[in-house]
């Protein structure tokens, strides 16, 4: 187990990990399993700073995969409403193992690279249910997180040797996460073919996705004294708010 890793359970009444192909027509249809990007978003809602980058190691599917369709009346760009059918996953629960690494595209934040500090804060925020609202795929799918031991308890797919889910979205590489020179300054979409074994899906790293496409230009956001305050946001008149001294 990596020293800077976290293990947690995330669960909710609904989830919507929508396929980009179905979003164009307004009829959102969920994938059967969470995407790497969605779980990364959960980690960032637990704790995030531009100094670090979360990597999802693996996810375990605890409850059976089941869907539910709902009629939704989204607002048109030109005004008025239309009728769409959204298909959600229902009654979901996952166990996730993830770790963080330094964002090498942020050399300006090298002084903030204190592994113990970030790891301790991440664990504390996980115990409190996350710093920001947790959701699964889309904002209306509220979820909850709590620490757990990965592989603990029983899962619905523990006895299924192998289950393939075909080609699906892995995630999005933003400008400040690009590894290759060709993708720096761009937004890149990544695809992969996940396989679940004994209820567990092990994710490949973003740079290992062989199916990828640059979809547009993107500039890195600059962080400086005006919009990045590090640990200062946890302090009030010099005292730590709700933290032990060990988090420093």
UniProtKB/TrEMBL annotation:
One Pfam family, short name: Cas_Cas5d
Transmembrane segments: none
Function text: CRISPR (clustered regularly interspaced short palindromic repeat) is an adaptive immune system that provides protection against mobile genetic elements (viruses, transposable elements and conjugative plasmids). CRISPR clusters contain spacers, sequences complementary to antecedent mobile elements, and target invading nucleic acids. CRISPR clusters are transcribed and processed into CRISPR RNA (crRNA).
Organism superkingdom: Bacteria
Family under the similarity heading: Belongs to the CRISPR-associated protein Cas5 family. Subtype I-C/Dvulg subfamily.
Cited CDD domains: Cas5_I-C (cd09752)
Gene Ontology terms: biological process: defense response to virus; maintenance of CRISPR repeat elements
InterPro entries: CRISPR-assoc_prot_Cas5, CRISPR-assoc_prot_Cas5_N, CRISPR-assoc_prot_Cas5d
Protein name per Swiss-Prot or TrEMBL: pre-crRNA processing endonuclease
GO molecular function annotations of the record: endonuclease activity; hydrolase activity; RNA binding
UniProt KW Endoplasmic reticulum keyword: no
Protein's organism: Variimorphobacter saccharofermentans
Annotated EC: 3.1.-.-
Key words of the record: Antiviral defense, Endonuclease, Hydrolase, Nuclease, RNA-binding
């Amino acid at each position: 187990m990596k020293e800077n890793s976290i293990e947690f359970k995330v669960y909710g009444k609904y989830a919507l990990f929508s396929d980009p192909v179905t979003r164009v027509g307004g009829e959102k249809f969920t994938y059967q399993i969470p995407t790497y990007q969605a779980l990364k978003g959960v980690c960032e809602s637990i704790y995030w700073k531009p100094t670090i980058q979360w990597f999802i190691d693996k996810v375990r599917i605890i409850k059976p995969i089941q869907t539910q369709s709902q009629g939704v009346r989204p607002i048109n760009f030109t005004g008025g409403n239309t009728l769409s059918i959204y298909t959600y996953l229902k009654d979901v629960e996952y166990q996730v193992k993830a770790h963080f690494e330094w964002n090498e595209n942020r050399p300006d934040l090298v002084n903030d690279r204190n592994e113990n500090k970030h790891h301790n804060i991440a664990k504390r925020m996980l115990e409190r249910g996350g710093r920001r609202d947790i959701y699964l795929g889309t904002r209306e799918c509220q979820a909850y997180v709590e620490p757990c031991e990965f592989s603990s308890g029983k899962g619905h797919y523990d006895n299924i040797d192998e289950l393939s889910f075909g080609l699906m979205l892995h995630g999005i590489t933003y400008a400040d996460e690009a590894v290759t020179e060709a993708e720096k300054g761009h937004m890149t979409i990544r695809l992969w073919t996940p396989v679940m074994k004994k209820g567990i899906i092990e994710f490949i790293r973003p740079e290992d996705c062989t199916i990828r496409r640059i979809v547009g230009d993107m500039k890195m956001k600059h962080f400086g004294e005006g919009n990045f305050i590090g640990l200062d946001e946890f302090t009030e008149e010099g005292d730590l708010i709700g933290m032990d001294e060990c988090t420093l």
